[in-house]
Amino acid sequence: MSSLTEKDRPIVQLLLNTGTCPRCILRFCCVGSQTLYRCPYKDLMKDLKEFLKNNQEKEDTDCFDVVDPPCKRIRLEHTEEGPDDLKHNGALQQIPSVNDENTAVENSAVKVCNVCLGILQEFCEADFVKKVCQKVNSAGYQFTSFVFSVSLPPQLSVRERAAWLLVKQEVGNLGLSLAKDDIVQLKEAYKWIIHPQLSEELGVPADGKSLFEVSVVFAHPETDEECHFLATACPDCFKPAKNKQSVFTRMAVIKALEKIKEEDFLKHFPCPPSSPKNLCVALEIQCNNGAVFVAGRYNKYSRNLPQTPWIIDGERKLESSVEELISEHLMAQFKADSFNFSSSGREDVDVRTLGNGRPFAIELVNPRRIHFTAEEMKGLQQTINNSSDKIQVRDLQLVTRSAIGRMKEGEEEKTKTYSALIWTDKAIQKEDIAFLDDIKELKLDQKTPLRVLHRRPLAVRRRIIHTMKSEYVDEHHFRLHLKTQAGTYIKEFVHGDFGRTKPNIGSLLNRTADILELDVESVDVDWPPTLDN
Questions:
Q1: Which of 158, 199, 218, 386 would you call most buried, defined as having the most Cβ atoms within 10 angstroms of its Cβ?
Q2: Distance, CA of 388 to CA of 44 (rounded, Å)
Q3: What is the model's pLDDT at position 85?
Q4: What CA–CA distance (Å, rounded) separates 298 from 391?
């Protein structure tokens, strides 16, 4: 049941005597009524005082008579207990009895809770909620819902364990049992209280699936070292991680608490936990929007423009790139922190991409603006195209993360069409190259090209030239139109790469051949959808 009953009386009295706040008392009494936790703090304290005063034959007071489906309960069963009356250094500390319930209540009202360290006290009040909402509103995000996340100090788990052992001992003396999982989790109770307040203040609903996250990071420097004894007791649980400042993470502490024996825990940590002097502090209040994905196709008309920034040994070689020419406008409009660029293949710095262009997608990380109409996207596309004569984009649109996978699906099975201007050392006539037109499904063995060996693993890749069509230019030049399997190294197919690609145009013509110009004429990936631009 979700209301307090006679069996809860000793727990309420015990926890009040040891400096636990009313909401934590409700948690340890396994009260699952969200409504109760939202009651004003002073009212809860007053109601607990009345509950303790009431005749023991009366099970519930009116305040706690809230109809709500139970989520936790104390089980009525006899269980095997650990060592009786365990306390710090081997025994539970003697809790002084307080005959005057008024004294217990008044003292508890002014203390920082010895379990939640103030999380369910000051940080549930309207002033803190307004502080969070001011931070959110000043950040300038677009959002239609929110998800609220909390990062708690790891030592709270230690204090929770100590309080649980105390209560478990008390209810055990009454022939009852209390499992850890029966207790309402601190985060759960906090969100029950804070969600409605944030929702009202922000004007949007709380939604666990929302892409807009409001997060609060709490810390309590006064008790930071309370976890340290666990590192001695359970050293395997605390291993340094590159991205963590401390080994005492919440998950590591929880893992250690699961391993340590109760008697060993009680030898190192006071039970009940001591009352702190100071509240927790909210170290960070942060907002983060889920990534937005923009896709399209780009044409590249320059033979002096890399797809991505060209940096060698820390030195930039060219001033711009396809990626930057597109992303700088998207970053400005979406007001994002950063971006990630991907595409269906890539062309060399001296290769043009013509035809319908190459599919690309950009992930915009933590954007402030997320809503764009089709007309606004068309205007953004025009802005990009007006900014440079080196590239053009088309079919610019918002897409989902999962849709991007279509760009990469079966990449090596897709086909690409190229146009190459080829030079030969020996003079040629039309009839010398005509036979190339008749070659179909030519299989190549391509060892990783020397020019990319620094960034690609050494391997021999089987690729296919589906069709070729030659176009005679003069005695030393001809143009070759090729339809190939995606991933084929065209330059190496022409000159042979010192025999690393077999066969090659040079070996087929029995002369030295080299490539002077290369254009990508089509990338046969049916994505993103074509728009009426």
A1: 158
A2: 66
A3: 44
A4: 7
Q: Retrieve residue 498's tokens.
A: 């010192």
Q: pLDDT tens across 249-284, in order?
A: 888 899 999 999 999 999 999 999 999 999 999 999
The pLDDT confidence band at residue 309, using thresholds 50, 70 and 90, is very high
Place of tokens 């020397």: 450
The residue to which tokens 């004003």 are assigned:
40
Q: Please check the confidence at residue 342 and state whether its pLDDT lies above 50.
A: yes
CA–CA separation, 305 and 319 (whole Å): 9
Q: CA–CA separation, 216 vs 213, rounded Å?
A: 10
Band the pLDDT of 110: cuts 50, 70, 90: low
The structure tokens listed for 280 are 């927790």
Nearest-angstrom CA–CA distance, 229 and 126: 37
Domains of the chain: 6-55+112-226+269-288 (no CATH), 292-413 (3.30.70.2510), 416-523 (3.30.70.3190)
Contacts of 350 (CB under 8 A, 6+ apart): 303, 304, 517, 518
Q: Is residue 417 helix, strand or coil?
A: strand
Lowest mean pLDDT among 102-106, 122-126, 138-142: 102-106
Question: Count of CB atoms within 10 A of residue 524's CB?
Answer: 13
The answer for residues whose C-beta is within 8 angstroms of residue 307's C-beta and 6 or more apart is: 300, 321, 322, 323, 343, 346, 347, 349
**Given a cut of 50, is residue 94 above it in pLDDT?**
no
Residues with Cβ within 8 Å of residue 494, at least 6 apart in sequence:
420, 422, 480, 504, 505, 506, 513, 514, 515
Active site residues: 348
In this structure, the strands spanning 391-399 and 292-300 are antiparallel
Stated as kind and residue range, the H or E segment containing 509 is helix 505-509
CA atoms of 458 and 463, how far apart (whole Å): 15
| Helix runs in 206-321, H state only | 228-233, 250-259, 262-268
Return the pLDDT at 178: 87
What is the band of 533 on the pLDDT scale with cuts at 50, 70, 90? low
Beta-bridge mates of residue 364: 292, 339
Residue in 84, 61, 41, 76 with CA at minimum distance from that of residue 182: 76
What is the token pair recorded at 380?
């953004």
Report residue 58's pLDDT band, with 50, 70 and 90 as the boundaries: low
Prior bond to 503 cis, omega within 30? yes
Per the listing, tokens 């170290």 go with 283
Cα–Cα dist 72/39, whole Å: 19
pLDDT number for residue 163: 96
| Cα–Cα distance for residue pair 264/273, rounded to 1 Å | 15
With cut-offs at 50, 70 and 90, classify the pLDDT of residue 79.
Answer: very low
Angle subtended at Cα 474 by Cα 469 and Cα 477, rounded to the nearest 5 degrees: 60
pLDDT band of residue 444 (cuts 50, 70, 90) is very high
pTM of the predicted protein model: 0.82
| Alpha-carbon span 303 to 341, nearest angstrom | 20
